[in-house]
Amino acid sequence: MALRSLIRMFQLLLVTVAVLSTALSATLQEQGNYTSLSDAFEQLANLTYLPNSGDPFSGSQNFTYCCLLAVNASLEVINGYIVEKTPCYIKSSVDDLLTAAREGQFPCGAVWDGNYIGAPVVEVPYTWVKETCPGWQLSTSASQSQWLSPFVGFLLPAIVFCLAIPRRRKLAVWQQLFVPDLSRAISWILAPFAMIFAGVCVVCDTVIWLSMCFAFPSPMLLSGFYEAYLDYNVINFLQDKTENFRLTLDMRARLLFVILCGNLDLEPKARKSDRKFIEWNTIHHNNNNHWPDFASTKKLNASSPWTYVQTLVHPIRTYRDSDILTSRQWPLHDERCSLPNCTNLKCKEIPLPRNSQVLRDIGRTKTRLRTMLACQYSFGATIGCPIVFFLGTFIFTIVTVLSDLGDSDTSIALAFGMWYMIIPHLSIVSGLLLAGNNPNTFEGVVAHEFGDVEDPQTFEELHFGTRVLELAYNSRYKPAWSWLRGRSKRDWVRKAWKTYELRPSAATKGDAVLDEDMAALRTITTLSITGWAVVISLTLLLMGVPFVLAFLTAFYTPQVGVSCRSLTFIVYTITQIFQILLWMWAFAGLPHQGEFFSLLRKDGFLDGTGFFTPTEMGTLWSKDTFFSFRSAWAIVWYSLATAFGIGGVFTSIGGTMMQLMGVYRSGKCDVNVEWWTKPDAETGVILSTNYTLEIEDANRYWKSCGITAVLFLGTVAFCGWWYQRRLRGLFRRLVNDLGNPKTDREDVKAAMIVSNGK
Q: pLDDT for 577-605, tens place per residue?
């Protein structure tokens, strides 16, 4: 048995040797019998020296054909043998090239076949490319990875995410285009044209908003995180003060409304039709000679949503008003008391009784708060589901990379997909905020206060600008732009603590003193250096990770180095960093007193010249103040914002279009940036495909970056979902505590007990 096995192994060895000898002899025989290069390489048959039939600078170049020209220029047949010419652009021996061609790895147009060695490298000087193959190569429908994969897989989903990002205005689609009267024949004739034009308007509006989201994502993210930080701190403040019985019922409800309405314009232009509303609310139903409602000392904006928030919580106030629609948070001393420093507890104001009507008003307030929160879009439906499909595209592209290692088009599609992660990040941040995007929710809550039904067209002054760019929501209230939401929420919180920062003295009759609770609210919502560091770090994280992943993938797509695509990512990121600095300049406010040089402090030189408020444009429209520091700061700020915004649009939308069209598929983009200023330098351009370096980079960088992108985006989406679910739960708990006697302040409880005892 052992002898038989030994004989069989010897026979197999003889067969193997015979096969190798036959192949070697065939190769040697072929090398002596070639009459032309096309005998060995059929791809070189009928080759001419005109690689394109059209204008190469209009996309008619063909770099696969250029590769064939380079191979043809590197070889010649002498006495039946294929030998190298000088110069030779093939970085392998002739025998290796012949072997690769027989194995289906001819360098021009080679694809992955499972062999990690890949195809031979064909590398030509950049000067050769400029002379022989100038211009760029238009993307073809035959190669899905060139344009279809990034367009359908990443760009279209990004548009879906853009539509979930709140905005203030949109391109108007005129109602006349919908031809309401179809009883006439002319209407049926015009209807198709109206439909087409309306569709064009919607497409243009989507492209414009997509461009805006790509142009200003960093200030949008920064403002969103700022608002989220304020929401978190206000809710923590309410929790702490409720547990320690420090706030009145109406103040807790007021701050909850601030959280939900803080993205609306705080001080819109007053409307004449709303003035009677203020006059109606000046009637005080609970006046008392001992603790009177004071007359109005300030003028309220009748059209401000803050005024209507005050109206909603007014029926559940604990004490009478210190001003119109501004209830006291602490008891007033008896006005009839003549003692200057009286400490008699009987002279302290008694809280308003909670009769059945007040209890019903408390129930209405709780219902309004719950309804406003519940009317917001579901995070899972608007953000979570699109994220799943976006991640599916990533996974598909990664699988494509694994099944087609060395395909640079696939790696670039993956790089642009990682870059587009910025848009899902924007939608995630906008989706985790508690303030609703649609102001009609708040308008519906206060609708019973408006006696007359108004034409929605009167909500703003009509002129050319408002006719072209109409309000995104047909409401009397206007939401702030995404990059201004954080500042808007800050203004609402500031309005709350400034309105109630002074209170009557608790112990004796005397002047008003600082309210400790409002001082605490001011402190907790005024970001310190640490707070700003957290907000900016989160912004840079969501901006930086897509950039780093996209840059690494493009950088390690041979030619390895910084070239057109990776440079696009760099320039775009620089524009976003400067936009963050501009946002901080305009909206971060003054530095903390005493922490910096006097030049930067309040009432310092920069503060006096309007340096910290560069977005105020009032000085630009006055002849007296045009030539001033305030005007100069405004001009500088808006000029820089415009320049960086245009730069963001050009690099994002322009870079995307150039990649999809194939403009980046050119000789100039195949060399590193450092060689652009050295046109005569002999740097190399690789024309072949599926070579060893591409395969190694695909395994080492492309795949790793793709997997990291999937994990990071999934983690960010999950954290956003968890955060907003937690914050909504805390908000509902605070709403449920409204009206609960156990959460009342101690002085209110004591007064209620005394009142009930009587």
A: 999 999 999 888 776 655 555 666 666 67
